[in-house]
Specification:
With 244 residues, the chain is an alpha+beta fold. 34% of the residues lie in helices and 31% in strands. A hairpin with a 2-residue loop joins strand 2 and strand 3. Bound molecules: 2-acetamido-2-deoxy-beta-D-glucopyranose (2 copies).
Length: 244
């Protein structure tokens, strides 16, 4: 915008001569309107006035600046005018490119975290499974309780609530008979995950606790074996030394 203003001012001062017009009262104004609706759709239009009179317009659909008055071209020769328009075309396309680049850097995307919990029991022998999804941005998100690839129609989706840090929170619940909870999973789809859905299995945490316990036990056994083996070997060595 600053560049456009400067160039137009320069151009018009050239055309009309700066001597007659005190610069601080120079009544030339121009307006640039640029819209960036999404990554595909952008347009830039321009308008210019000298005092109350609109002198030029520049549509996004055109490569040329439209002169609205017979004198809008000032004392420019056609060649000079064409050169000026070329400068503006370069300005327009680099302005558009730079803003798009900037917008890309601003496009924020935060991955959701998900965890499961048990809700208040809805009745004897029944469970409420709760899938919490939090910390995601932007807002659109897909959360369903699943059995294998089968979406569970009983999934109750809560409202999407704001977190304090401008991210979003959502919970999805499912009521099931206690015996049917095994094998259910919560699946989360979000733009930030780029197709790598989050899948959490009900009871998965128990399995992993069991696995950790098993791993710790295995480690302990290995250590024990190492100590026993080492002591045994050391004893044998010292006895050989005794013989020698
Ligand atoms: C942009 O254009 C591509 C292909 O022309 C289309 O698939 C995509 O949906 C468009 N994006 C938006 C945000 O409109
Ligand atoms: C605006 O002009 C640019 C460059 O000529 C073009 O790519 C774009 O599609 C135009 N926008 C609209 C909305 O027509």
């Amino acid at each position: 915008m600053g560049c456009l203003l400067f160039l137009l001012l320069w151009a018009l001062l050239q055309a009309w001569g700066s001597a007659e017009v005190p610069q601080r009262l120079f009544p030339f104004r121009c307006l640039q309107i640029s819209s960036f609706a999404n990554s595909n759709w952008t347009r830039t239009d321009g308008l210019a006035w000298l005092g109350e009179l609109q002198t030029h317009s520049w549509s996004n659909d055109s490569d040329t600046i439209r002169s609205l008055k017979p004198w809008s071209q000032g004392t420019f020769s056609d060649q000079q005018w064409e050169a000026l328009q070329r400068v503006f075309r370069v300005y327009r396309s680099s302005f558009t490119r730079d803003v798009k680049e900037f917008a890309k850097m601003l496009r924020l995307s935060l991955k959701p975290k998900a965890w499961l919990s048990r809700g208040p029991s809805p009745g004897p022998g029944r469970l409420q499974l709760v899938c919490h999804v939090s910390g995601f941005y932007p807002k659109p998100v897909w959360v369903k309780w699943m059995r294998g690839e089968q979406e569970q129609q009983g999934t109750q989706r809560g409202d999407i609530l704001p977190n304090a840090d401008e991210t979003w929170y959502l919970r999805a619940t499912l009521e099931v008979a206690a015996g049917e909870a095994a094998g259910l999973s919560c699946r989360v789809k979000h733009s930030s995950l780029e197709g790598q859905d989050i899948v959490l299995y009900w009871g998965g945490s128990h399995i992993s606790v069991g696995l950790i316990a098993l791993a710790v036990l295995a480690c302990l056994l290995f250590l024990l074996a190492l100590i026993v083996g080492f002591t045994f070997r050391f004893k044998r060595q010292s006895s050989y030394q005794g013989i020698l």
